[in-house]
């Protein structure tokens, strides 16, 4: 059933934004939960940076630092290069994939008990969205899609739920990177704009993405030169606000498309109704810090 033309643009964007806010917490246990940190150490990865880059990049295979710099977009290249490709000499991508899935599943089951009850109905709906989503120009989504569509009803439903949310999270993220690059916004500049809009403290974004104060200052100067930030206060100008609004709206447009192609309104509402309690349990557990570099608000 093709529902692509259903809903106004505003309704589609609002749905995409809501879907992100409830999908991101379910996925993000893999970055913050102690189960994931321990699993990464056990498989041989050294330190949080190596664990992050290797675990998130593992669906792509034993890729180089350059591939990850391009796909992830917003990290300082030197941070990536300190961990890749060395990580693949310590653990194979296949071993890392098993470790991340098992650990994230255990964490999600622990902090969000409702996930086990919701997964049986949620996973088939999410898989329908994943199956129709376009993987062109979306490397992280395309690499995660077969993982999300693999398996049978006999598999762990919470594991399947985590992998489905991960694939859809990467689908949105790939689209966001495409929009940023089309507007000439590089990785550090994206964080400067986000901080100027009140999304997260500048220090949080610098420290978690490897940018120095000099990098931040240079990015700010470039944005001032483009008229996107004020030269005196560093705040977004009207042009800066307009660009950020455009980037977010276009990201939502791209993210919404497969939901509207694959599902009807009642099915989309069912996804949000089932997944919202899971997201709330993750948030209430304190697993994800606030503020955070993910841009995820506390709700």
């Amino acid at each position: 059933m093709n529902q692509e033309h259903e809903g106004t643009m505003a309704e589609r964007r609002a749905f995409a934004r809501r879907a992100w806010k409830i999908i991101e917490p379910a996925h993000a246990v893999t970055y913050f939960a102690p189960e994931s940190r321990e699993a990464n150490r056990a498989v041989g990865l050294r330190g949080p940076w190596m664990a992050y880059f290797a675990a998130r990049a593992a669906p792509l295979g034993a890729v180089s630092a350059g591939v990850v710099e391009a796909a992830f977009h917003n990290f300082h290249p030197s941070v990536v290069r300190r961990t890749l490709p060395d990580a693949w000499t310590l653990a194979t991508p296949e071993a890392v994939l098993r470790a991340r899935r098992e650990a994230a599943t255990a964490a999600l089951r622990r902090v969000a008990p409702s996930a086990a009850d919701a997964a049986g109905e949620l996973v088939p709906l999410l898989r329908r969205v994943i199956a129709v989503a376009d993987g062109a120009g979306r490397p992280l989504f395309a690499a995660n899609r077969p993982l999300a569509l693999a398996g049978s009803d006999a598999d762990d439903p919470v594991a399947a739920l985590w992998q489905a949310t991960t694939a859809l999270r990467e689908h949105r993220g790939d689209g966001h990177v495409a929009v940023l690059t089309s507007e000439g916004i590089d990785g550090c500049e994206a964080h400067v704009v986000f901080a100027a809009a009140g999304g997260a403290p500048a220090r949080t974004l610098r420290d978690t993405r490897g940018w120095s104060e000099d990098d931040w200052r240079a990015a700010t100067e470039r944005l001032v030169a483009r008229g996107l930030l004020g030269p005196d206060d560093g705040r977004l100008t009207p042009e800066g606000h307009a660009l950020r609004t455009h980037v977010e709206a276009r990201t939502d447009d791209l993210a919404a498309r497969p939901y509207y192609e694959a599902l009807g309104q009642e099915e989309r509402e069912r996804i949000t109704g089932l997944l919202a309690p899971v997201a709330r349990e993750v948030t209430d557990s304190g697993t994800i810090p606030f503020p955070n570099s993910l841009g995820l608000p506390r709700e």
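The mean pLDDT is 95. The first helix runs from residue 9 to 32.
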